[in-house]
Amino acid sequence: MNILIAPDKFKGTLDARQAALAIQRGIRKVIPALSRCTIDLCPLADGGDGTVSVLVEAVAGRVVPILTEDPLGRPVYAGVGLARIEGVPTALVESASASGLALLKPSELNPYTASTSGTGKLVSYFLHRARSEFSEISKVLVCVGGTATLDAGLGALAAMGASLLDETGAPLHKGDRLLFRTHAIDPSGMDLPGRDGRPEVQIATDVTHSMLGESGCVRTFGPQKGLHPSEFGRFEEAMRRVANLYGKVFGIDPGFLPRSGAGGGLAGGLAAAENAQLLDGFEIVATALRLRERIANADVVITGEGAVDRTSFEGKAIGKVVTLASSLNKRVAILAGRIEDSVVDSRLCGAFKLSLESLCRYPKEAVYNAANLLEIAAERWALEYSTQ
Fold first, then answer.
1. For position 12, what pLDDT does the model report?
2. pLDDT at 341
3. Distances (CA, A) of 48 to 203, 204, 335
4. What is the pLDDT of residue 213?
5. Would you state the torsion angle of the CA atoms of residues 260, 262, 264, 267, taken in this order, to the nearest 10 degrees?
């Protein structure tokens, strides 16, 4: 029997590799009962946080630390990947490493002032240094997801050289509630596409949501960034005005572009300024990992993430894995921190599923003891499977 272990990260507790190893440990406790069992570890990512490490490992690249800033403007080192993606020398920038939720304490969340400036600095670093120490880089792939921001990418564009102006024409600065106060953009200081030898910018996202609308980034992701539902309308209107402004300045209004809402609109802002493609992050990772081939060779696919809910099937890795495995008639097991049973049952009737929450002996054990609980969950799957 061939078992493919292909989890995404368990956000805030385990990265994808740690999760895969925990599942493997649990299965190995039962391996004597599973004759001729082979295990294939395949940690996943979908364009959001964790994508750089997964891609770098998959294609034998390397990670370099670059000094930038977090969402509140504090210095932070971000790991940027250098790798050949489909043969192209690429710098892999992950928005979560500079503008991520994980960089802030819950008490520090502030969607009014949290900025994507740090991500913009990383992108600018490679655009301006492509002729020097990173002369081999011909593409910058920005992996957008997991940010603490709702600034529509204005902070990033400012860090890349754009001048943001208020309604009086006065320049704005970090911390100035850019989404609400930006009424004009002067892009003359930016290194815009077209310069000979300048790397191309592409954007990979882990969600399909647009900047605007009922399923846009404000309503869907605002609460996790500290936004109260009573503020949805105000942020939606400000996001709409900025999207329209992008259309006037750059010729592309990203408001309703699929994937433009990733990173609180960061994906849309970069797409407009860079005339950049918005790509499915999972597909990039799946290609690098030869995922379809590995699923086809498996008898069982075990996947999981921190929380399986509706959004898991809206562009994220676990939903794609489940859909692909099902299309190839593979048995699927889902191990996750939390599972909305109705969501899974509506897509995989009869699939094995087990949440870490159901194994908890005390509150938040699924957070503090995730690796051990995931190992126990995998062992329970293996025991049940071995008796079938």
1. 84
2. 86
3. 11, 8, 20
4. 97
5. -50
CA dist., res. 271 & res. 259, Å (int): 10
Kindly report the number of other CB atoms within 10 A of residue 57's CB atom.
17
Residue type, 129: R
HSE, CB side, 13 Å, CA atoms: give it for residue 280. 9
| Distance separating alpha carbons of residues 211 and 263, to the nearest angstrom | 9
| Beta carbons within 10 angstroms of residue 228's beta carbon | 9
Q: What is the pLDDT of residue 195?
A: 76
Positions of the chain with pLDDT under 70: 34-35, 129-134, 315, 349
Residue 82 structure tokens: 């250098």
CA distance 285 to 288: 5
Distance separating alpha carbons of residues 220 and 150, to the nearest angstrom: 11
Report residue 49 as tokens.
């946080």
pLDDT, tens digit (0-9, with 9 covering 90-100), for 46-77? 888 899 999 999 999 999 999 999 999 999 99
DSSP string, 24-79: HHHHHTTGGGSTT-EEEE-----SSTTHHHHHHHHTT-EEEEEEEE-TTS-EEEEE
Side chain identity, residue 358: S
Assign 3-class secondary structure to 106-156. Answer: HHHCCCCCCCCHHHHHHHHHHHHHCCCCCCCCCEEEEEECCECCCCCCHHH
Q: What is the pTM of this model?
A: 0.90
